[in-house]
Hints:
The chain is α+β, with helices and mostly antiparallel strands. It is built from 17 helices and 20 strands. Helix 12 runs parallel beside helix 14 and helix 14 crosses helix 16.
Amino acid sequence: xxxxxxSRGRLVLLLIVAMVGSVVLAGRTAYWQxxxxxxxxxxxxxxxxxxxxQASRRGTIYDRTGLTILATDLERSRxxxxxxxxxPLQRSEVADELTAILGLEGSAAAGLxxxxxTDAWYQVLADGLDESVASRIREAAGxxxxxxxxxxxxxxxxxxxxxxxxxxxxxxxxxxxVNGEGKGQYGVEEAYQADLxxxxxxxxxxxxxxxxxxxxxEQVLSEGIQxxxxxxxxxxxxxxxLEEEIFSTWVADRAKKVSAIVMDPYTGEIYAQAxxxxxxxxxxxxxxxxxxxRFVDPVVAEPYEPGSVMKMMTAAAAYQRGVxxxxxxxxxxxxxxxxxxxxxxxxxxxxxxxxxTFEDGIARSRNVVAxxxxxKLGKTTKSASLALYDTWAQLGLDRKTGIDVAGxxxxxxxxxxxxxxxxxxxxxxSFGQSVALTPIQIATAxxxxxxxxxxxxxxxxxxxxxxxxxx
Length: 471
């Protein structure tokens, strides 16, 4: 007779295995329900909730009269979807419907399909849709042909006034533009981004199985703050005239670039400021593709060798130190040897005009006259160089002007206290060579010479909302 096949040991083993399994299952359940509870709850909320960020109205930009609008928002819509919740067939059907409504072809249609092919919970499909297109999308969504597709308020920036030159909006360099993400780029739009943009309205809503927000489920997380309007010191009428003038000059002289500034020397207010070539800020995307360098404002960001306008700075240094008077005779020789004959300077016409008053020498833009007086600013080349540089510093030429637009860039002149100048360096710099300045630096320096020596800070914004910046 065979023995029993079961045993007490096997029963105990099975019991232990069952107990261990129960403990593991209980522990795993506790892990998910207790330790990972918050993570799972958050995941569930993310799948059932939709957070909408609605941009606040961006502030309007006016000229100094407060009547002429230079930049404002137009009401438009942003098209979004949740491809994550769509099947491959639904993605294709939604792409077909939207391609037809938006009138997309070629690469634009392909781009829309690529956006819908992602696994994103939130995908921006198009911006700047006007009401006629938006209404067709709402109709298709209401008919169930566009699951998860949403329209959000998304204003676009408009620059309504044409510039004085070909294919440009008024004061484009000065104003800058607003990119697709609602951020100011260049000029006033970037410098005053926080004031103009305000703060967005943020809403949390429950969404249904198709991804659409459930009516009445909205919870306002932040009401947002409307952007502040700006009043500029610019006069729109004068701005147009200035742009027409520089465009005519650009054409007539076949110039590479032309810039001009109209500035109040006593307050620093800019009445008009422009450069050409310019651009149309309403079509900044096309400019970005073709030549993004056109966004840079030469007035504040492109130092150049100014030439003879610097002779007035040399005159200021000489008068300040009593080196000459307006009637002091200076010999305008054909050539002025320097550094022991190793270098020299001469006038543009290569003609020596003999003795003339210092006033006439500056008025006639004589390089030799300016150089001779610069060399007399000190007993040595070093002391004379330091004297001229000190006048430059007093006129603000060694630093930024602080103009309230984005992107100001300077190339500070070489300090002779750090890098000693030779005679040829001093001579050249006395009439504006071997030094690079921006037009706004020069205008600011001239303002100080006009107003009695007060270095003003150039300004283009006079008020932010009700807060006055320029009295």
